Amino acid sequence: MESAAWAPAQSPPEPAPEVLAAFEAAKGFMPLDEGLALYAAAADAARLGLPLLEIGTYCGRSTLLLADAARRAEGDVTVLTLDHHRGSEEQQPGWEYHDPGLVDPEVGLMDTLPFFRRTLHAAGLEEHVVALVGRSPRAASVWGGPLGLVFVDGGHTDEHATADYEGWVPHLAEGGLLVIHDVFPDPADGGQAPYRIRCRALASGAFTEERAVRSLRVLRRTGPGI
Ligand SMILES: C[S@@+](CC[C@H](N)C(=O)[O-])C[C@H]1O[C@@H](n2cnc3c(N)ncnc32)[C@H](O)[C@@H]1O
């Protein structure tokens, strides 16, 4: 059964107004209501004092929200944001989400890294973020520490989403949050890979879904396993 829209008992935390303005101005695909839900999840997870990981930086639109939540958390919380910065399948030339302005003319490939860096710098949030540049499975293969939040918004094929899930979710601490973007229960609305990892997480018995806002899902780790 699909979860109903979550009704907060009290007003959830919101980003600083200048961060919200930077979010709305940045290139990216996340609508405001999902961004606010991501921010609230990051503020909640940051209380664990562990790094918050984003898979899929793109131009830094969603990273801004994670970074602001980390900045305002008690303790020294770091955001890790991971991307090879060459774009997902659907962002390549000829595809629906291609932006020709993101192609590096010298190498003829997409390069979102400079755009991400400018976004973060302009918002004054560089101090709180470590950018990991590379492919998700390779980065996961050398990562060893616990994480307070895993936000999955990288490649949307089954191969990529499954690798993100299997590579990073084992590091999510108990009480931490798994946030998945582009979850579409109805195939008519979009690709099914993020939906499938969300279902896998719930079927594992290690997660409880706490919030659904449009295509964003927030799941809390309640036990071991994936
Ligand atoms: C949908 S965009 C992320 C959007 C961003 N979270 C936002 O809301 O602004 C997906 C990103 O994932 C990256 N990506 C796709 N597959 C990846 C992989 N296997 N490893 C690292 N990054 C990947 C792409 O380069 C792209 O920038």
Please tell me about this protein's structure:
Its EC number is 2.1.1.-. GO terms for molecular function: methyltransferase activity. The chain is built from seven helices and nine strands. It has helices at residues 17-25, 32-45, 61-72, 113-122, 136-141, 158-168, 193-203; strands at residues 52-55, 79-83, 103-104, 109-110, 129-133, 147-152, 172-180, 207-213, 216-221. It is an alpha/beta fold and 226 residues long. Helix 1 runs antiparallel to helix 3 and helix 6 runs parallel beside helix 7. The two termini are 20 Å apart. A seven-stranded mixed beta sheet has the order 5-2-1-6-7-9-8, with helices on both faces. A hairpin with a 2-residue loop joins strand 8 (207-213) and strand 9 (216-221). The model is unreliable at 1-7 (pLDDT under 50). The chain has a single domain (17-221), classed as Rossmann fold. The protein is globular, with a radius of gyration of 16 Å. The structure holds S-adenosylmethionine (SAM). Residues 28-30, 56, 58, 61-62, 82-88, 112, 135-136, 153-155, 160 line the site of S-adenosylmethionine.
CATH class: Alpha Beta
What would the average pLDDT be, to the nearest integer? 95
Task: Report the C-alpha radius of gyration, rounded.
Answer: 16 Å
Q: What does the overall shape look like? A: globular
How many runs of DSSP E, i.e. beta strands? 9
Tally of helical runs: 7
CATH topology: Rossmann fold
Largest sheet: 7 strands, mixed
Small molecules (ligands, ions, cofactors) in the structure: S-adenosylmethionine
CATH architecture: 3-Layer(aba) Sandwich
Uncertain runs with pLDDT below 50, 5 residues or more? 1-7
